[in-house]
Each structure stands twice: as structure tokens, then as C-alpha cells.
Inverse folding.
């Protein structure tokens, strides 16, 4: 049924591609002005670009009907001028590069925000760590013309390569360490967990639709609620015990030995911290007590056992 | 997978046959695996198996786009479809599947070989410019076999597990945009159900402890446990962004969910067992559990962004969250043919336990800052933040074995200073960041009282970008000098990388990375209550080199990574990657891939493996 639905929706659209709109020829460019596509190859292929599609479907200001002729491969100059500004002087000067605006850096990205300004509770283009600045701006990661064809959202490179250019230590841990989320290897990307346009908050993490920690988007079995919660997760969060990126330790734990991970909290030398003391028969010189989760199997939470045995 | 491959194949065939302008790029083929050594460790780390693989697929057209990668033998793949018509609708489909495998030698004995499939469908309709209604549906399935342990007295018995989790979410709402006010309101309903069946593994009846308990051998003839859990979570999610004036923007958000779960569990066990809780030997157990748990969470907040000048913004916000967790369980246990440890009072022994627990957690965060996004080549960002956390944990008193630290009221305040600065000019970027956190009290022993995070970054590109070089250095120091902990930890990492493209057809790259982790905290040994140090250390370094050659219709990309880690768990990893593509015709070619991973542990060589994968794929771009 799902396949049929997808095919139906795509089929409807494919039909529209095969049957271009009737040529109205109205409001086309005056014949005396050369088209941008006469010199710029990019303009000829722009119809397939998401921004080109928008222009095709919604006539630019001043046009009264769908611009262009019979095929969606012709883009009116007005489409280019949306970002590059008035090109008349550039055309009259025979293509003088100094007489056309080239959107680069923060000033160029300010142009993007003319349409993409909307913020949300998770997105801030003004105050987040990736706010539109001299160092990081829209055009640092997105490229209108030279985007990576296999990436969505006009990304200039693969997401991992883009993030790596500033966050190479995190990317290095994905690539090198033995136990890591499969980021950039088919399953996930950095943006699976992080909102790259994030607001000022904890590492710009995404959340579930109900507002829970991003880990629970996939690991639904850990969400509970359980009758007996593990305090590490209920008061803290997943990162109390686990590494989010790559880890040298199995199950992406923060310690190589399970007994260390558990004992470091479950050793109350005073009663001021949360984490109970194991009974004395837990003899750590006996190997069977070094792997706590061998008995405390329901370590994320249990509906039956406060000691998380089952 | 078959359900998805069929529509994909039909679509590609239809699109190609229709002679439209739809560009298609597809890469499909077979991967072979040559594995030596520990298969469990290989699959826990890499898990790339032998079989058919849709390596990549991209279909782009003016009105729709399809992207897929690594669908087939996995271990993880995605499919994304986006289609729509301007001023009418937008439909998005996202599908991900991932194999979850864990079978690490001697690592707490849990194993699983499960599969997760996630499907998201979202439809937005555009009846006008002001209101955009939407509806979405998501399914998350997690299922497959595994193993776990059954704990009784001082014995553990291996159990086989069969798990089937299903999570479904329906959401609907609307986005509104009046020009100056934009927002989204979402109402959702989530239903989770889980079924797990556990049975004693064949040959596991002797348990792992061959010594008798108080003179009696502990054995199991049969163990079964079936559990079913249902959970319902309605949720409401709202945010509004309003432009009060061109310079002032207000953003408000509110989230509320109420999760209710109920569980039923039935267990039977036959054999020769002992229970220290009731002080008896017994020959069988039938147990039923009925449980209910709730999680009510409300979060809301607001922030303001005020543009002081062009590219200079002042921001401030407040966020509050309240979480209530509670649960009750009624446990009926019937110990069959029981006797006391002294051999007296033979009878079936019934025990009924009504357990309850609850927890409340509040978190309030206030922050304010200044963002200077372009002061010539400089940009700065400074933020102050205060976070207050209160946790009230009430355990079930009847269940406490060793009193202390199971519950109580815990309060913690964290004050944060977060500073960022960067300089960008002529393809040189320099960045520095420092964050200091100061806390008054820990909740867990490993919580810091002071933490400093430093980050330095430099990147340079030559004219025309034929050289790019970057270095990043990070250090995090945290400590808790509270008498209860004596905790110190340091994490350091340096990475340097360089890319050179001396000619258009050749790209060279190299990187070097070092990291160090060292933590030290006191702990109490349970067996004799003496105080010791828990030390964890990692010292790793990696070297990577690679090149890419582009010659007419042929590309070759190859790299080598060597990663060497010493410390608590020393190991070495060598990774080799190569990929060649040859375009035989204008629209068709082949891609060949080679990957090799060699993993060696110093202390536990039983974990070592060496895995080579060879892939051959057909590339087609009609």
C-alpha cells in the first residue's frame, strides 16, 4: 500500500513533468536583453534546482504567468536577479564581473535570509552558535549552484565532510573508534541528532516530537515509563553512562569495565548523592561481580524489580 | 526491504521508459565478505554482510526527489522521498533501517541480533499562505532474537529472548504565518507495545555456578517468561515566533506529554532453586506481575532576540521543565515445594508484593547573551546561563537492601559562562571557545563541581583552494572535590588535517589525531568497605592518508587509517578503503569497493578479527 501511495504521488508529478505547461509567452524577457543562460551554463540547468522550481511554479514579481516557453529548462533573468541583483549593468558591460553581485560570506547569506528567515523554538539565525556570521553562514554549508547531487538541501558536500571542517575531533571519533553510531555510513548523519541552525541550547540537540531527548527517537524501547527507573536515565540522561559519538568501549559506554562505570556512582561515601551501595557479597575480586549487568539485566528500567534484575 | 525495492524498481523503469527529463543516478551490486577471527566482535562493530546492496540512488525531477543509500544487506540504509506541488501540497517519506547487533566476548553476557525499521510519512497542504495544515505518521519497529540472564540466588542461567517492539505515532497540526507571527501547533498520539518471550537456553540448566548453595545444587529444568507492555502518550507541542518590531523577536514554546504504560508478565520456573529473600529452597516458581507507570512532563519557555545593530543581537531566555514519574507493581509469587534452609516447614509459599516508586524532577534555565556576528572579520558570542535542577526521588522502602542514597531530595545549580570568538579573513579562519561551568552540588558522584572546556581552531585555504589545512584542539577538565567523590577527569584531543589538490585530477589528504582521556574517582569496595580509586585511561592516536585520482571516465579514491589506543582497554585498528569507478559508456559504468578492518586487542586477543569486503556495483545514469 505504501509503495502504491508513493508511486501514485510520484506518478502524478511525473506526468506533469512529461507534459509541460502550455506556452503562454506572456511577460517573457524583452527580446533585446540577452538571457543569463546565453553566457552562464548554470542558468540553463537551474530549472531542476529547488530554487528554480520555485521560480517556475511561482512567477517572479512582475510576471503575469508562468515564465519561459515550453520546456522547464529556461529560466528568466529575473530568477537569477533574485539573488544576484539587477543584472542590466553587468549585461551592458559585456559581462563585467564587477557589475554583478556575487553572494558570498555573511553578506551573501543575508540574501538567503530574505526568504529563509523564519526561526522557531529550535532554530535561531541570530543567536545560535551557527547564526549567520562572518565565520559560519548559510553559504558555508549550502551551495545554490555547486551542490553535491546526492545530498539534500543543496549541501555543498556530504554532511560529514561539512561538519568535519570545523568539528574534526567529533568526526574523527566516528571514523576511528571501534564502537560508533554509523554516521555517514548509510544510517545516520550529524543532523539526525543535532539541529545545525540551532538555538542557544545544549549542543543544539534535536528532540522527539513529544520533546524528549533525541536518543529516544530511535531507541524507543528505552523510553519507558518504567515502574522502576534507573536514576542515571530518569534524573540524568543517556549521556550519564554512554558516549554519543564514537567510543573505545563496547555499547559506547564511558568506561571499559562495567564495574567501574557502575561503582563510580554506586559508592555513596556520604548520603548526599544518588546511587545506592551494593551489598557486601558483591566481591569485586571475584570475576562474576565485575559485570554488573549480567544480573541487573534491566539496567534502563524495570516494571518488576527495583534492583533491575528482570 | 522487498516492500520498498518493488516501488523503487517500478519507478526507475517507469521514469527511464517515459523519456522524461528525470535524472537518475543508481548504483546497485553485490558485496562479498571475507572474515577471519571473532565474528561477534566484527558484527558488533561493523556488521557489513555479504549480499545485494543498493549502494546509492538519486532521482531528481522538478516536482520530486528520491534518495536512497545502502539498502539491502545493511547494516544501515535510508530512503527518502520528497514530492509536492507548489501551492498544493508537500509529501515526505523517510525510511531508515538499521541492524542492531551485540555479541562482545565476556561483556556482561547480553547479546542481540535485532533490526530496527523506522518510517516517517509527512503531508503538508497549502490551502493558502497563512495556514499550513499537516499530518504525519511514524512507525518504529524493533525486533529479533537476543540472550539475557536469569538471576536466582548465586546462579545465572542463560535465557533466549524474542522481542517485538512497535511504536506508532500519529500527529496533526498546523503552521501559521501572518507575516509577523509564525508558529506551529502539533497534537500527537503515540502508542507503544512490546512483547518479549524468554526461555531457558538449551543446555543452560546447570547455570554458571557449579558450587552448591548451602549444600544444595542449583539447577533449572525450565524457565519461561512472557511479558507484554502497552504505552500511550498523547502530546502537545507548540511554538510561536513573533516579530514585535523589526528589531525585536519573541519566541515561545510549550511541550506537554503524558505517558501511561501498563505491563503484564507471567513467569514459570522449574528446577532446584534457593531464595535468600524468603530464606527457602524451592522446586518451582509461578509468578505474575501487573504494573502501571506514568510520566507526565511539561516544558515551556520564552526567549527574546533584540537586534541592537546590524549583525549585533542581544538574546535572553527562560526555560522550565517539570517531570513526574511514578509506578506501581503488584507481584504475586508462588514458590512451589519450598523448605527452609534448615529443611523444615515444607509447603508451597506464596508471597504478594505491592511495590511503588515515584520521582519528580524540575529544571529551570535562564540565559542571556550577546551575539556579534560580523565586526569586520571578527565575530563574538557570549552567553551566561544558570540552570537549577531539583530531583525528588522516592524509592520503594520495602525493597531496599542496603539503606542510603536510594532517594531523597537533590538540588544542583550550574552557572555557565560560554564565550566564542572567531576571525575570518582571506581564507584564514581562527576560532577560540571557552566554556566554564560552576556547580554547587553534585546529584551523582560523577557530576562535576567545576568544568572548563577549551577549543581552538584554525583553518586556511590557499587561493583557488588547492591547499586546505586545519587544526582543532579541545580540552575538557572537570572535577568534583566534594569529600564524597574526589573526582577529576581530563579529555584532550588534537586533530590536524590537510588536503592538497596540486592538479585538478589529483587530490591528496592526510590527517593526524591524538586523544587522551583520564579520570580518577574514589569508590568503596562492597566486599570490605575499603576506599579505592577507579582509574580509566585512554591514549589514542590515529594517522590517516588518502588520495583521489580523476582521469577521464575513471576515479580512484583510497585511504588508510591506523588507530592505536593504549590505556585501560588497549587495541589497534587498521582500516583500508578503496573505491574505483569506471564509466564504460556515457550513462553506465561500474564501481568497485574494497574495505578491510583489522582489530586487535592486547589483553583479550579472542576479540580480534580481520574483515575484508569486496563490492562490485553497476552504475547507471540514463
Amino acid at each position: 500500500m505504501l509503495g502504491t501511495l508513493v508511486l501514485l504521488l510520484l506518478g502524478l508529478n511525473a506526468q506533469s513533468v512529461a507534459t509541460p505547461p502550455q506556452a503562454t509567452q506572456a511577460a517573457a524577457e524583452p527580446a533585446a536583453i540577452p538571457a543569463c543562460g546565453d553566457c552562464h551554463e548554470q542558468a540553463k540547468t537551474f530549472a531542476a534546482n529547488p530554487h528554480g522550481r520555485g521560480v517556475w511554479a511561482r512567477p517572479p514579481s512582475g510576471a503575469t504567468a508562468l515564465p519561459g516557453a515550453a520546456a522547464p529548462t529556461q529560466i528568466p533573468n529575473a530568477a537569477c536577479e533574485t539573488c544576484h541583483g539587477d543584472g542590466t549593468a553587468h549585461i551592458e558591460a559585456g559581462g563585467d564581473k564587477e557589475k554583478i553581485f556575487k553572494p558570498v560570506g555573511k553578506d551573501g547569506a543575508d540574501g538567503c535570509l530574505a526568504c529563509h528567515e523564519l526561526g522557531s523554538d529550535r532554530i535561531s539565525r541570530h543567536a545560535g552558535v551557527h547564526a549567520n556570521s562572518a565565520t559560519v553562514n548559510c553559504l558555508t554549508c549550502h551551495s545554490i549552484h555547486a551542490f553535491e547531487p546526492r545530498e539534500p538541501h543543496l549541501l555543498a558536500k556530504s554532511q560529514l565532510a561539512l561538519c568535519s571542517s570545523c568539528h574534526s575531533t567529533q568526526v574523527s571519533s566516528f571514523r576511528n573508534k571501534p564502537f560508533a553510531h554509523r554516521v555517514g555510513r548509510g544510517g545516520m548523519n550529524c543532523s539526525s541528532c543535532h539541529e545545525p541552525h540551532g538555538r542557544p541550547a545544549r549542543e543544539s540537540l534535536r528532540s522527539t516530537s513529544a520533546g524528549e531527548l533525541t536518543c529516544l527517537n530511535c531507541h524507543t524501547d528505552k523510553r519507558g515509563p518504567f515502574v522502576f527507573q534507573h536514576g542515571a536515565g530518569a534524573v540524568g540522561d543517556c549521556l550519564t553512562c554512554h558516549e554519543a559519538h564514537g567510543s573505545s568501549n563496547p555499547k559506547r559506554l564511558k568506561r571499559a569495565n562495567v564495574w567501574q562505570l557502575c561503582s563510580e556512582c554506586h559508592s555513596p561515601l556520604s548520603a548526599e548523592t544518588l546511587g545506592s551501595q551494593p551489598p557486601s557479597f558483591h566481591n569485586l575480586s571475584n570475576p562474576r561481580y565485575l559485570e554488573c549487568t549480567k544480573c541487573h539485566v534491566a539496567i534502563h528500567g524495570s516494571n518488576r524489580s527495583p534492583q533491575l534484575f528482570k | 526491504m522487498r516492500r520498498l525495492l518493488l516501488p523503487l524498481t517500478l519507478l526507475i523503469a517507469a521514469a527511464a521508459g517515459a523519456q522524461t527529463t528525470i535524472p537518475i543516478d543508481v548504483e546497485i551490486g553485490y558485496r562479498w565478505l571475507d572474515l577471519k577471527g571473532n565474528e561477534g566482535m566484527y558484527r558488533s562493530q561493523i556488521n557489513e554482510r555479504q549480499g545485494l546492496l543498493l549502494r546509492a540512488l538519486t532521482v531528481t525531477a522538478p516536482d520530486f526527489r528520491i534518495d536512497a543509500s545502502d539498502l539491502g544487506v545493511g547494516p544501515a540504509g535510508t530512503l527518502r522521498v520528497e514530492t509536492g506541488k507548489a501551492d498544493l501540497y508537500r509529501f515526505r517519506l523517510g525510511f531508515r533501517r538499521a541492524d542492531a547487533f551485540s555479541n562482545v566476548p565476556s561483556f556482561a553476557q547480553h547479546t542481540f541480533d535485532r533490526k530496527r525499521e523506522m518510517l516517517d510519512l509527512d503531508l503538508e497542504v497549502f490551502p493558502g499562505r497563512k495556514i499550513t495544515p499537516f499530518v504525519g505518521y511514524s512507525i518504529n519497529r524493533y525486533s529479533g532474537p537476543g540472550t539475557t540472564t536469569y538471576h536466582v540466588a548465586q546462579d545465572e542461567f542463560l535465557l533466549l529472548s524474542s522481542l517485538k517492539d512497535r511504536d506508532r505515532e500519529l500527529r496533526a497540526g498546523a503552521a501559521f504565518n501572518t507575516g509577523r507571527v509564525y508558529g506551529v501547533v502539533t497534537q500527537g498520539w503515540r502508542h507503544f507495545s512490546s512483547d518479549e518471550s524468554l526461555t531457558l537456553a538449551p543446555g543452560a540448566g546447570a547455570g554458571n555456578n557449579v558450587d552448591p548453595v548451602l549444600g544444595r545444587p542449583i539447577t533449572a529444568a525450565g524457565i519461561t517468561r512472557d511479558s507484554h507492555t502497552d504505552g500511550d502518550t498523547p502530546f502537545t507541542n507548540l511554538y510561536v515566533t513573533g516579530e514585535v518590531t523589526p528589531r525585536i523577536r519573541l519566541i515561545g514554546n510549550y511541550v506537554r506529554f503524558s505517558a501511561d504504560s501498563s505491563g503484564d508478565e507471567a513467569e514459570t520456573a522449574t528446577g532446584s532453586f534457593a531464595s535468600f529473600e524468603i530464606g527457602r529452597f524451592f522446586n518451582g516458581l509461578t509468578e505474575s506481575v501487573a504494573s502501571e507507570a506514568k510520566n507526565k512532563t511539561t516544558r515551556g519557555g520564552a526567549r527574546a532576540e533584540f537586534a541592537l545593530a546590524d549583525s549585533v543581537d542581544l538574546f535572553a531566555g527562560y526555560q522550565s521543565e517539570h517531570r513526574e514519574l511514578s509506578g506501581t507493581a503488584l507481584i504475586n509469587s508462588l514458590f512451589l515445594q519450598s523448605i527452609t534452609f534448615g529443611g523444615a516447614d515444607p509447603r508451597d509459599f506464596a508471597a504478594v508484593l505491592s511495590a511503588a516508586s515515584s520521582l519528580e524532577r524540575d529544571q529551570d534555565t535562564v540565559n542571556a547573551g550577546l551575539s556579534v556576528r560580523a565586526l569586520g572579520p571578527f565575530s563574538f558570542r557570549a552567553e551566561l546561563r544558570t540552570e537549577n535542577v531539583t530531583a525528588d526521588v522516592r524509592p520503594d522502602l520495602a525493597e531496599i537492601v542496603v539503606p542510603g542514597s536510594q532517594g531523597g531530595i537533590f538540588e544542583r545549580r550550574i552557572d555557565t559562562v560560554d564565550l566564542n570568538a572567531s576571525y575570518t579573513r582571506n581564507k584564514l579562519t581562527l576560532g577560540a571557545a571557552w566554556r566554564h561551568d560552576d556547580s554547587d552540588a553534585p546529584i551523582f558522584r560523577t557530576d562535576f563541581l567545576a568544568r572548563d572546556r577549551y577549543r581552538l581552531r584554525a583553518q586556511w585555504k590557499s587561493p583557488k583552494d588547492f591547499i586546505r589545512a586545519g587544526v582543532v584542539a579541545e580540552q575538557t577538565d572537570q572535577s568534583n572535590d566534594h569529600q564524597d567523590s574526589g573526582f577529576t577527569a581530563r579529555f584532550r584531543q588534537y586533530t590536524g588535517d590537510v588536503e592538497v589538490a596540486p592538479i585538478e585530477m589529483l587530490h591528496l589528504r592526510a590527517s593526524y589525531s591524538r586523544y587522551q582521556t583520564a579520570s580518577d574517582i574514589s569508590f568503596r569496595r562492597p566486599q570490605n568497605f575499603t576506599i579505592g580509586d577507579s582509574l580509566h585511561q585512554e591514549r589514542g592516536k590515529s594517522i590517516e592518508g588518502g588520495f583521489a585520482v580523476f582521469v577521464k571516465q575513471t576515479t580512484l579514491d583510497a585511504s588508510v587509517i591506523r588507530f592505536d589506543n593504549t590505556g585501560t582497554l588497549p587495541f589497534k585498528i587498521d582500516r583500508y578503503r578503496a573505491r574505483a569507478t569506471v564509466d564504460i559508456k556515457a550513462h553506465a559504468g561500474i564501481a568497485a569497493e574494497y574495505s578491510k578492518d583489522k582489530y586487535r586487542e592486547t589483553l583479550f586477543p579472542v576479540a580480534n578479527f580481520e574483515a575484508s569486503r569486496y563490492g562490485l556495483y553497476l552504475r547507471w545514469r540514463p
